[in-house]
Amino acid sequence: MNKEKESLEEILDKLPMSIKTKYDFGLLRISPFYQNGKLWAIEYYFSSTSNRPPIVFWDSSLYDACKKMLEYLEKEKLS
Questions:
Q1: Residue-wise pLDDT tens digits, 21-33
Q2: Which residue has the higher pLDDT, 2 or 53?
Q3: What does the alpha-carbon distance between residue 61 and residue 53 come to, in Å, rounded to a whole number?
Q4: Which of 3, 5, 4 shows the shortest CA–CA distance to 64?
Q5: Torsion-angle region of residue 41: left (phi > 0), alpha (psi -120 to 50) or beta?
Q6: What distance, in Å, lies between the first and last C-alpha atoms of the chain?
Q7: 67 pLDDT higher than 80
Q8: Cβ of 23: how many Cβ atoms within 10 Å?
């Protein structure tokens, strides 16, 4: 991994604050999938009581899937 990139732990440490500030403790499920190589899926559930379907962020890198989710949550928070 590039030294300039944050570690996965640093990214995951940011998630609870992003979630708390906007989404009432959304729930995450992180799963590996194997189909023509390894893919990671992060499912973000907005809350346990929400009728809104989860959003799934896919990538071959768990790091990049986390970054996609953080970018999405930041855009949502601003709107």
A1: 444 445 777 777 7
A2: 53
A3: 23
A4: 5
A5: beta
A6: 32
A7: yes
A8: 18
23, 55, 18, 46 alpha-carbon torsion, rounded to 10°: 20
Domain 8-78 CATH (choose: 3.30.160, 3.40.50, 1.10.1660, 2.40.30): 3.30.160
Question: Using alpha carbons only, what angle is made at residue 78 by residues 52 and 54, rounded to the nearest 5 degrees?
Answer: 20
Residue range 44-62, pLDDT digits in tens: 887 667 788 888 888 888 8
Distance between CA atoms of residues 34 and 26, nearest Å: 26
Q: What pLDDT sits at residue 63?
A: 82
User: Does the predicted TM-score (pTM) go above 0.70?
Assistant: no
Q: Specify the DSSP class assigned to residue 7.
A: P
